[in-house]
Specification:
alpha+beta; Pnp Oxidase, Chain A; 4 helices; about 20% helix; about 35% strand; Split_barrel_FMN-bd; Pyridoxamine 5'-phosphate oxidase; FMN binding; Pyridox_Oxase_Alr4036_FMN-bd
Length: about 180
């Protein structure tokens, strides 16, 4: 858990945020492990919980796994701007992250991740012959040596809006292309 000093210094807070994001990608119990991803669907919004799989602080990039046939894939291809929202009760921290999404459906990055994932029960999520949201039937499950419809969503972080809830008074900070600054909670 970050020190309370991190909540009073913008540079320390930025480091603590990225440290916590990296921890969330490794720790299944971390509150930020399953943020809500909101994308644009025509004239409206569509939101769903996703699993944060990897974080690259240096590149300011988050990685999420998906089925390439998922509605969010068509949405991100039409409108790559999106938002992630995460809450961590143990920290008392909320994140709103503006991201630019891109999709990997082939290549070494995908193959290496599939090599690890195919041995887990989660592999079935990407092997279904039916797209997400389809009615269930008795369709056969493909063999695990195929990659099915496994894809990576890369979320390039453009801005982070942090809110820390404290009994001594809430704090809020924004980190974006204009820099880092405290704002009214």
């Amino acid at each position: 858990m970050p020190s309370s000093a991190a909540e009073d210094d913008l540079a320390a807070l930025r480091i603590a945020l990225w440290d916590e994001l990296q921890r969330a990608a490794r720790d299944k119990g971390h509150g930020w492990r399953t943020p809500v991803l909101a994308t644009r669907d025509g004239d409206g919004a569509d939101a769903r919980t996703v699993v944060l799989r990897e974080v690259d602080a240096e590149r300011r990039q988050l990685v999420i796994y998906t089925d390439a046939r998922s509605p969010k894939v068509a949405q991100l291809q039409a409108h790559p701007q999106a938002s992630l929202v995460a809450w961590c009760p143990s920290l008392g921290w909320q994140l709103r992250v503006k991201v630019r999404l891109s999709l990997d459906t082939d290549g070494l990055a995908l193959s290496s991740r599939w090599a690890r994932l195919k041995l887990s029960p989660a592999a079935q999520d990407y092997l279904s012959p039916l797209p997400p949201g389809s009615p269930l039937d008795a369709s056969p499950v493909p063999a695990r040596d195929t990659r099915g419809h496994f894809a990576l969503i890369r979320a390039e972080v453009e801005a982070i809006d942090w809110l820390g809830l404290r009994t001594a008074g809430h704090r809020r900070a924004v980190f974006d292309a204009a820099g880092a600054r405290w704002v009214t909670p």
